[in-house]
């Protein structure tokens, strides 16, 4: 059994705001903060040798979202450099919750967010999806303690 | 003064899931639920004679988000018809909070969400943005009581 | 054998420009015209009883693009109503070429485009894709003549 | 006067395919190739000290598209690294035409495309857009010959 434990893993993902991410108010459209959180999460998983959508022994293990949330304090504009700091807040037997802080040009906090993803298997040509316990080979890379 | 009051306004926005809204897991990518909430909100505003980005006496009044959140219970697939039921949960002097419920084919609840938008003015060619009290002409269309 | 024949099918798809489709120049971002062409194409296919991604006898038949092109004459703004007029320009044994004309508020021509899609089968859990002749049941709905 | 001259400038932009860029066919959705071309173009402009949307002496100079085109030879999948090679094909008094070649993992040609952008000024709070000759300070950075 893996215990639900607060973890200390941190990761920083950097991005320059693209023109197509702005809207007619001249700032980054809010839906892109959710894309940024996902891109930071996937870069984090790659950094520890994982992929958010990985085949292992004929089964795809993927991580759909259970919940996503973002609070906006200031705006981002075209060509701003945004640093997204990811922390693994909690890991349970089947889910991971990430916290995110967005910094403009690495300094000013402009937004905070969080997402919870659930581990699923996807099987067969009809791609049926079912929640599963996080496999051991993933737990190990995420650094969870075995109870 | 307008009081902060729970309101009873409801609105339903319908959408058929587009191919480009799916991802390689075969379901609607989660960021699109935030697009759907915004599209439902803007259709609601149009239905009461407003626009989310309206010019009035030389000033643009717009509604950036303070917060957005969504919880996912089941998935949506290509060509599913999704009904998004919007309710105005709370209105303050400067903000509106909407609740959203997503139904697949009008029946099965697949997600719930909420957003809070703040009223701002955008002025000048440099488009500087400042929070303002919701103007009376907007309050009236939203059906708020005058205290 | 089906002959390659110019066809006379026409279809009109209507859309109100969404806020999230604009960019900081205050107009619809050009990539959305390609989304609009695809949405018009898929609505056209539904209108004749087809789907762009359909399972038939255990095989998925899908239509990836070989080519897409758009020329822009004027811009579209938030809440403009755009009418996209689709015509099937040419159908070969394996491909369909569509022409598109974009009208602002149903009147002013703002853009023209075209796409060519190729018929493929997608098989197995590894989803391998291979070009195939357009199946008869699709040809018939598209109104092609049998040589 | 600047002459219309084929130019020899080349630039390479690299990108790892994001999960949200795939669709239910398991490959990169075709509209993203147009996003990639734009991101490569803007990175190229930054590399020579320009921005696609720059203020100079109170006027915004921007580059809306006149035309965009892409031909697809093979597909890209999640986490593929794509190299987009940009070349300035032609520069006229008011327009720039770029050619793009997309390579999977830096080796296999998967797509080719081109875009033509026109130089415009955007003025005033109503942001009216008008085509203008490419300003000298931009011509110089682009390395055009003065006739």
Quick rundown:
Four copies of one chain form a homotetramer. The first copy, chain A, has about 150 residues and is of the alpha+beta class. The first copy, chain A, is built from two helices and nine strands.
Describe this structure in words.
- The structure is a homotetramer of 147-residue chains.
- The first copy, chain A, is elongated.
- The longest helix of chain A is centred in the first third of the chain and has 17 residues, at 31-47.
- By secondary structure, the first copy, chain A, is of the alpha+beta class.
- The first copy, chain A, has a five-stranded antiparallel sheet. In chain A, strands 2-3-8-9 form a four-stranded antiparallel sheet, with no helix packed on it.
- The first copy, chain A, has helices at 31-47, 136-142, and strands spanning 10-16, 53-56, 59-62, 65-72, 81-91, 95-104, 108-118, 120-123, 128-131.
- Helices cover 16% and strands 43% of the residues of chain A.
- Chain A has a domain at 10-51 and 69-116: Thiol Ester Dehydrase, Chain A.
- Chains in contact: A-B, A-C, A-D, B-C, B-D, C-D.
- Chain A binds chain B through residues 24-27, 30-31, 34-35, 38, 53, 62, 64-72, 75, 122, 127, 129, and chain B through 24-27, 30-31, 34-35, 38, 53, 62, 64-72, 75, 122, 127, 129.
- Strand 4 of chain A pairs antiparallel with strand 4 of chain B, so a sheet runs across the interface.
